[in-house]
Write a structure and sequence with these properties.
Distance between the termini: 16 Å
Radius of gyration: 16 Å
Oligomer: single chain
Order of helices and strands: HEEEEEEEEHE
Strand order of the largest sheet: 2-9-8-4-5-7
Number of helices: 2
Mean pLDDT: 93
Strand content: 25-35%
CATH architecture: Alpha-Beta Complex
Structural class: mainly beta
Shape: globular
Largest sheet: 6 strands, mixed
Number of strands: 9
Helix content: under 10%
Low-confidence stretches: none
CATH class: Alpha Beta
Amino acid sequence: MNARWIGRILRGFRAGERHSASNHAALFGVPEVISLKSEWFLNGKQMPLRSAGRGVGENISPPLSWSGVPAGTVELAILMEDPDAPLPRPFVHMIAYRISPDKSSVVEGTLANEAIGVAFGRGTAGAQGYKGPRPVPGHGPHRYIFQILALSRGTAFLSAPKLKAFLDGISGTVLGRGMLVGTYERP
């Protein structure tokens, strides 16, 4: 059975947003005051092939820019999740943190594992750094939710955290957030 048929069979099964970072207690009541954008795609629109994951595209992280970071921000973090993956929980593509609050953008490719001035948590597959879209062929369009978080204190993880540990570790420190949604589909 090829991947396209598997994708079609699993088309109705999606993780959903119930277990996404947006619904973690660390983000309850946090205002969406940061505007997050990319010059590669508009909110809710298709991400380019070059941002797609290895074996599909070039796995280059998109350029991102933001404004509206709240006063008192000590550190920024950027998360990327796929709530449409055919898994029990959204697929975590990236956890990037220790980003200077003085920054207002990152250029394409910046969020690779070897980036300077950025620390990375572990995604669902255990890897660190940006992992671009690679939905199952035939599964339909997937949403890739980028969130930027403004933190009132710096993070102090002893090792690269998974999403739950990261969110638990920043609980009570998130001053504001912003969101950008890209889509990607493999027919």
